């Protein structure tokens, strides 16, 4: 089992920055992959960025060059630094943790709202 707790959402003007945090209930080294997803009103949940336990990252094309996923192993926390925010980044952002063995199991945080005003 993995509990994930997000924080750091809020309201920001276009062009601004926010940093999201996701604290895990266990060592993030033991979690095969962690990441951030988002869901805007009327849309499905989409991948924003992922980070494997080996340090590999992956980003959605829409956020490349603007968002950075990182981790603090000592705090069992991952982060999403969001710069140059756009109104279309407005969504509920969810932290995800995935275990691969013996089968893929996903855990989700409760979500944190990010609103970018024009």
The total of beta strands comes to 11
The major β-sheet equals: 7 strands, mixed
Structural class: mainly beta
Distance between the termini: 40 Å
Number of helical segments with 4 or more residues? 0
| Gross geometry | globular
Order of helices and strands: EEEEEEEEEEE
Q: What is the overall pLDDT average?
A: 96
Estimated helix fraction: under 10%
Determine Rg (CA atoms, Å).
Answer: 14 Å
Are there runs of 5+ residues with pLDDT below 50, and where? Answer: none
List keywords for this structure.
118 residues; mainly beta; 4-stranded antiparallel β-sheet; 11 strands; 0% helix; 53% strand
Provide a concise account of the structure shown.
With 118 residues, this protein is mainly beta.
Can you describe what's shown?
The structure is a single chain. The chain is an all-beta fold and 118 residues long. The chain has strands at residues 4-7, 10-13, 18-24, 33-39, 46-52, 57-59, 67-72, 77-82, 91-99, 105-108, 112-117. The model has no long low-confidence stretch (mean pLDDT 96). The strands form two sheets. Strands 2, 4, 5, 6, 9, 10 and 11 form a seven-stranded mixed beta sheet that branches. Strands 1-3-8-7 form a four-stranded antiparallel beta sheet, with no helix packed on it. A hairpin with a 6-residue loop joins strand 4 (33-39) and strand 5 (46-52). The chain is globular.
